[in-house]
Structures are given as structure tokens and as C-alpha cells.
Amino acid sequence: MQTNITYSSFVALGDSFTEGMSDALPDGTYRGWADLLAGRLAARAPGFRYANLAVRGKLIGQIVEEQTGPAADMGADLVTLVGGLNDVLRPKCDVDRVCGLLEEAVERLAPSCKRLVLMRSPGRRGPVLERFLPRMERLFAFIDELGARHDATVVDLYASEAVGDPRMWHEDRLHLNAEGHRRVAEAVWQALGLEPEEDWNAPLPPAVPVGWLARRTSDVRFARQHLGPWIGRRLTGRSSGDGRAPKRAELLPYEG
């Protein structure tokens, strides 16, 4: 393992996963794995610069159109691209089109940076995941192909039982919580060839059984606060990211 690698700049592209939902800070903003990774990289490189172009709710076509051009022009040492999952989780999805757009993004980004990182996105274990599993596996197999073809690093988060554990996820069941994001940051850190600080894939202790009433109460709260609004946006063609700007649109010196 090469532990003396130094990256002087980092640009992150994607959707809510890379924006940092739902690793909430006291002021209501989100941190997330990309911010955590940037902080650790900055500690190794004076003058380190960081941009995060990810916006919640973005589909792969929007990521290609809105983020890849600016990211490629920045010429950062390190670029991460995670997208397509919002597409495959929709009722109707042309997976071939999603793969084609992802390929377009990779072909634009790979020549512009020293290291491109792709990911097999994590999935919360449960019945919803099983429903979309065939689409996700097609997407992830194509990501593996892109990684091999363009010499990009692929971080396999989907295979992790630990990150897929429901206890790593926010109550909305769509986004990782703070511990989940922390583990993802460590996974990417190690994939970059840097000295491990811990086993990011270490199994969680056995879960404490939850009673029937508590489970049903949680399900009702989830449906009312999260599932209902999500379905409403799908039916009306709206997105949680409509009109929202990236939290770090420019490649500027990192400030923790």
C-alpha cells in the first residue's frame, strides 16, 4: 500500500449521497463522506482545494449536463463520481440509457484528473432493495467495466453488509446517517492507497430485537414524513434539488 500519496485538490460529483444527506450538522447543513474525506486529505497537503458539486435528487443526465463540464475544467487531482441510483430507483428506468450517460461522464472526467473514483453505491438491506436489485446489479456491473476501461478506482460499498445494515441509515431509509458516511469516507481513503485508520467494513454488534408495535410505529412515521413526500415529488415531476445550488461550487482552499 502506498501511504505517501498526496492529493492537492478534490472535486466530488453526484446526488444526495455525495452532498452528505443525512449527516446533519447543528446548523442544519449536511456534512457527509466527501467533506470528511476532504478534511483528511487537506491535513496532508497545505493549500488543499475542494469542490462539491453534488445536489440532492439529481439524475445521471443532470449530473452529466450540470456537473461534468465544470468538474473537468477544474483539473483536480482527485475526482469522485457517484450517480445513477436515483434513476434505477424510479418506477420506469432505461438502464442502458443510464449506463450510456455514465460512460459519457467518465470519458469526460478521466482525462482531466490523476485519479477518478467510481462507486457501487450502498443499499439499505430490505424489501425495497430486493425489488430494484436486477437494475442495480446491471448498473454496478457496467461501473466495473468503466473502471477497468478507464483505469478508475471502483469502491464496492454495495457488497458491504455493515454499510447496508439499517442502523447505518437515517430514518428516511434513503440516506446514510453520520456513522454510515464516516465508514464510506474511510473506505474511499483506503481505496486511494492511504493508511487505514480502522476496518470500515467491520460488522456491527447483533441488533437488539424491536417489538411489533415499535416497528409499526416507525413504519407509519416513515410513510408520513418521508415516503409520502417522495412519492408526491415523483408524481409531479419535482425534485428535492430543484433550484438548489451546490454547496461548494468552486475549487477553493478547504476550510473545515
From TrEMBL:
Q: Where is this region: Disordered?
A: 235-256
Enzyme class, one word?
A: hydrolase
Pfam families listed in its UniProt record: Lipase_GDSL_2
Q: Where is the SGNH hydrolase-type esterase domain?
A: 12-183
Q: Which GO terms describe its molecular function?
A: hydrolase activity
Annotated EC: 3.1.-.-
Q: Does the keyword Metal-binding apply?
A: no
| Entry-linked CDD domains | SGNH_hydrolase_like_1
Is Hydrolase tagged as a keyword? Answer: yes
The alphabetized UniProt keywords are: Hydrolase
Annotated PANTHER family: GDSL-LIKE LIPASE/ACYLHYDROLASE, PUTATIVE (AFU_ORTHOLOGUE AFUA_2G00820)-RELATED, GDSL-LIKE LIPASE_ACYLHYDROLASE, PUTATIVE (AFU_ORTHOLOGUE AFUA_2G00820)-RELATED
Q: What is this protein called?
A: SGNH/GDSL hydrolase family protein
